[in-house]
C-alpha cells in the first residue's frame, strides 16, 4: 500500500503563503505591473476570475501573435509573479516550521510517511524547512529529498546546514532521461517552481493560468510529472492525502478520477472539508454532480482544522489523520 501527498496553496498558507485572492492584491502593487496590466487584472476579477486568468490571456495573445510587444507584456506579469513567489518564500523561510518540539504531531515525521510528495505550489517551503531533515533524521528510510528530472545549476554543495543548496536554480536534466531514485523521497512540483528554469539562462518553469493542461505537454519534465502522478495513484492500494487543493484544475481532477477507477482512496484536509470537491453554486435545490458522486465514495476521511492546530497537540484530530496510514 502506497501513501501519496498532494498539496495546494492551502498547505503553504499555514506558514504565511498567499492564497489566490491575496496574490491578486499583491500583484496590484507590484513594481512590474503597469496601468495596462492592472486594468487587465481588474477585468478578470470582475468577470469572476483572477490573476491566473489574466496570465492565460497574455499567454494566448503571445501564442497567437508572437512578437516583442506581446512577449514583453507576458514577461512583465511573469516577472511580477516570480517576484511575489520570491517574497513569499523568503518570508516563509523565517517562519517556524514545527508547531512544537514533541514527536507526536511533528510535520517532518508526518511528511516522511509518504512514498512521494506532489505539489501544485511554486514556493520553496519544503526546500527551506524539510529537505535537510530528510537526510539528517535518524532512522529515516530515505537518504534525501529528490527533485526528479531536475539538476542544480551550480556545483554540488560542499556542506549542509543551510537550505541554499535546495533553493538554488534548477533545470531539467540534459538527456531528458527522467528517473526516480529508490533511496530518495521524490518531490514532484507539478506546475513548476520559482527556482525551475528551462535552462541556465532560459524562461522560468512556472505553469499558471486557465490553460495549464495545454501548457504542460510543452515542458517534457512537467508532462512526466503529470504521468507519474496519474500512474502512482492508479496503482493497486494507493491512498492520496490532499491538503489545501481547491479541486479547480481539470487535469488534476481527471487524474484523481482515473485513480478512483483503480481503487484510489482519499483523505482531504481543507477548511471546507469534503465540501471542497463540490463546485455547484448554492441553490435551493442542487442537481446531482457527477464528480461529487464519483469521488465521494472514495473519500475515507477529512479534516476541517488548520495544520497549525493539528500539529500543535490537537490529539483528537491527529489520531483521526493517522488512521489514513493504518
At a glance:
The chain has about 325 residues and is α/β, with parallel strands linked by helices. The protein is about 40% helix and about 15% strand.
Key descriptive features of the protein:
15 helices, two-stranded antiparallel ribbon, alpha/beta, 326 residues
The termini sit apart by 10 Å
Q: Which sequence of strands runs across the widest sheet?
A: 3-6-2-1-9-10-11
Strand fraction equals: 5-15%
What string gives the helices and strands in order?
EHHHHHHEHHEEHEEEEHHEHEHEHH
Kindly report the average pLDDT value. Answer: 89
Which structural class is indicated by helix and strand composition?
alpha/beta
Shape call: globular
Helix content: 40-55%
Radius of gyration: 20 Å
Taking the sheet with the most strands, its summary is: 7 strands, parallel
Supply the number of helical segments. Answer: 15
Uncertain residue ranges: 156-162
Beta-strand segment tally: 11
What does the model show?
This protein is of the alpha/beta class and 326 residues long. Helix 4 packs antiparallel against helix 5. The chain has helices spanning 9-12, 20-28, 35-46, 51-64, 68-93, 107-111, 125-129, 131-136, 164-167, 212-215, 220-233, 250-261, 290-295, 307-310, 315-322; strands at residues 3-7, 116-119, 145-146, 150-152, 170-172, 185-189, 192-197, 204-206, 239-243, 265-269, 299-303. The protein has 15 helices and eleven strands. It is globular and about 55 Å long. The strands form three sheets. The protein has a seven-stranded parallel sheet with strand order 3-6-2-1-9-10-11, with helices on both faces. It has a two-stranded antiparallel sheet with strand order 4-5. Strands 7-8 form a two-stranded antiparallel ribbon. The chain is 41% helix and 14% strand. The model is unreliable at 156-162 (pLDDT under 50).
